[in-house]
From TrEMBL:
Xref: InterPro entries: ABC_transp_permease, LivM-like
Protein name per UniProt: Branched-chain amino acid ABC transporter permease
UniProt key word Transmembrane helix: yes
One Pfam family matching this protein: BPD_transp_2
């Protein structure tokens, strides 16, 4: 019986790996086929937006769902990546691809500074401090009125002020594909999202990911086993920020614009709702949560003022009935089935 029970975790791990691989293949096939099947450029544009939100949610899930750090600075990190891309391309004439990479590095440095400031705190104090830092960055941008550069008769602020930046460069698909440039942009954004998703999977299943989860589940025990809490959590801040900043740079290049609206509290709450509905601490949760909420939001597009109310009620239903999210509930269901199948074998 002990031999059988000892083989169960290994079997479950292999089963989970096969499941992730199968889901990944299906997702990849559907994602690649989407721009060829869907004719509406508007819907393809919505798919691109969905990939942006999913990319941010995947990294916030890594930070909160796996490392247990409740940060409210995720959209600020995203904004630093986007603003960094825009400012480097505008002021220094960087190639858009180099600007996107450098923007991601700037977002990483910003996030690690935030980590240095708040990771000696715990729980709600981390959330409050990260929210305060995000608010300060937003206020510094929107209250910037000093003239930094004259563009014709127009004065531009260093941070772009309340209007932000625009027309600083794009992926080049408008010149290359002309009328089908949206499909070209979709392919680039999809590649960026897949890089984010695959990197997250590798980290979660590495010894580093085990350290993140150990600190999340039992800090005292993890520290007693030799895990440095501060260094480990600072590391996850940096990793999450790099890919969030990369997503911000892709966002800025796709829309050829970036402004203070990316700091919107409603957007942050939407990203968090994506992770909660899909299932925090689950790999596919943010992806499934994005699909559910984006589809729901699109179906309620003509509902006017009731659109936000409808989304709020939907999220409330998921929180009450599925507190571990859709993927978490499915995982519990599959675990129960495996345990029932294994029970007769253990009896033998």
């Amino acid at each position: 019986m002990s031999d059988t029970s000892s083989r169960l975790p290994v079997s479950a791990g292999r089963s989970a790996l096969r499941g992730d691989l199968a889901i990944g293949v299906v997702f990849l096939v559907c994602a690649i086929a989407a721009p060829f099947v869907i004719e509406s450029k508007y819907l393809i544009g919505q798919l691109i937006v969905g990939l942006f939100w999913a990319g941010i949610a995947v990294q916030w899930n890594l930070l909160f769902g796996y490392a247990g750090i409740f940060s409210l600075a995720q959209m600020a990190v995203f904004a630093v990546g986007g603003y960094g891309t825009a400012m480097l391309a505008t002021y220094l004439g960087f190639n858009i691809w180099l600007a996107i990479f450098c923007g991601a590095v700037l977002a990483t440095l910003f996030s690690m500074l935030v980590g240095l400031a708040c990771l000696r705190l715990q729980g709600v104090y981390v959330a409050l401090l990260t929210f305060a830092i995000s608010s300060v960055v937003y206020l510094l941008i929107v209250t910037d009125t000093a003239c930094f550069q004259m563009i014709g008769t127009t004065c531009r602020q260093f941070t772009g002020g309340a209007s932000g930046f625009s027309r600083f460069g794009d992926f080049g698909m408008r010149q290359l594909l002309r009328g089908d440039w949206v499909r070209g942009n979709y392919g680039i954004v999809l590649a960026g999202f897949l890089l984010t998703l695959i990197s997250s999977w590798v980290i979660i299943h590495s010894p580093m990911g085990l350290a993140f989860k150990a600190l999340r589940d039992n800090q005292s025990y993890a520290i007693a086993r030799g895990i440095n809490r501060f260094h480990t959590q600072l590391l996850v801040f940096g990793i999450s920020a790099f890919f969030t900043g990369l997503t911000g740079g892709l966002y800025a290049a796709h829309f050829q614009a970036i402004g203070p609206s990316v700091f919107s509290m409603s957007t942050l709450l939407f990203i968090m709702a994506i992770a909660v509905v899909g299932g925090t601490g689950t790999f596919w949760g943010p992806v499934l949560g994005t699909i559910v909420l984006m589809v729901a939001d699109e179906l309620m597009r003509d509902a006017g003022q009731f659109r936000t109310l409808g989304l709020g009620l939907l999220i409330a239903v998921f929180v009450v009935l599925l507190p571990r999210g859709i993927v978490g509930r499915l995982s519990d269901f599959l675990t129960t089935i495996r345990a029932r199948r294994a029970a007769p074998q253990q009896g033998d």
